[in-house]
Specification:
Layout: E1 6-9, E2 22-27, H1 28-31, H2 35-44, H3 46-55, H4 67-83, E3 91-97, H5 101-113, E4 118-123, E5 138-143, H6 146-154, E6 159-162, E7 174-178, H7 188-207, H8 219-229, E8 239-245, H9 249-263, E9 269-272, H10 279-285, E10 289-292, H11 295-303, E11 308-310
Parallel strand pairs: 2-3, 2-5, 3-4, 5-6, 7-8, 7-10, 8-9, 10-11
Antiparallel strand pairs: 1-4, 6-11
Helix pairs in contact: 2-3, 3-5
Amino acid sequence: MAEPEGTVINTEVKQKDPSEALVIAVTTRAIFSLEEEHKLYLEKGKEEYTRHQQANQDKPLPPGTAFAFIQAAQYVNKKILESNPAEKELFDILVLSNNSPASGVRIINSAKHYGLEISKFCFVSDEDSTQYLKSHGVKLFLSADRTDVCNALQRGVSAALVFQQEVQAPSTPLRVVFDGDAVLFSGETDQVFREQGLEGALRYERAMEAVPMGEGPLKAFAMHLGKMCKKFSQETSPIRTYLVTARSGRDMGTRAIKTLREWGLAIDEAFFMDGAPKGPILSQIQPHIFFDDGLHNIQGAQDVGVPAAWVPSH
């Protein structure tokens, strides 16, 4: 598929090879705080929004929820290239936007202001921008629009919905937290739990203990992240990954651990919460992003200032 017409290549950034890079696409509302502008767009329409963005094109937008995550990915690239200047397996960041190129100048200027290493800006006004994800080799898509996220998941791309919030995530190393069921793993046990309750879910897990769980919507992204981690020893890695699951370690942890082992996915730390709130442990980890399919867990993360991304069951 050809590039969308409104694609702007950032000539100030060395372009990556998309066949080897870990490509992440973010929308403008995921990486920058555009809530006021979005409200203007909804209330006054596109022309007024475009006029506002053009009038303020030299005024940098405030950072949004995914901003710290993108900055930390940039830090990982720096560490990988220090270790091997010829390495091509790097993070490659694209901005995918429903803005027109005319209103997109402010987005480009904001990225340059913060020194963000964004390879391409794709402005595809009035189109389903997710149709371009596969052609760009995107491995993770972050958006503030639920329809976009559901469309991406249906296209087989790891995707999550970010909610606007004030975040103060520290910059290094990159810390990513995954929930288990319906995020890293398939939602099969969740389904049994809904139909048969906790006892039924425990029986199912015991019966299936030797069988690895199915793949969840973020498994492919996690595997790519794991591949990057393997370039370093655990002590020197600029990436740390965590599993924080509502499962209990005693009754339901074995199958989760066996599945990760079967996949060859090394997670730095795993926390089996046995249904306890995740907020306190997330507050300790201070991740750059936390992926979960439960909105109550997303709220718990937001309450402690952790950038959260919801993986809806589309």
